[in-house]
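Section 5.1 Outputs to date
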Amino acid sequence: MDHPAFTMRNPNRVRSLIGAFAHGNPAVFHQADGAGYAFLADRVLELDAINPQVVRDAVKEKSPKVIAVVHAETSTGVRQPLEDLSAIAKECGALFLVDMVTSLGGMDVSLDRMGIDAAYSGTQKC
């Protein structure tokens, strides 16, 4: 991903590279320590803020049972578009799980309006 011709803003290149890793390298993608899954999950979170269509295509190919996201990230200030992600989860028949540790109590949150199936939080933030 450090090649000068690669950019996360080009959906075709992202799908080619990340898709090839997930589909064409099952031994590494499904390794016991979960690093392959973690890599894909991190790329989905990174891409969501750039291009939700890439995320939509990536999860449709995998038919996940759950799509889990962090609503707001303290260190980067990124806030995920929950309504868009919820729609993607519904399209592929997945439950939509949201980590609201840094947002519940400090941001407008409506589980029903946002299409959230399950959420969790804690008292240490906001």
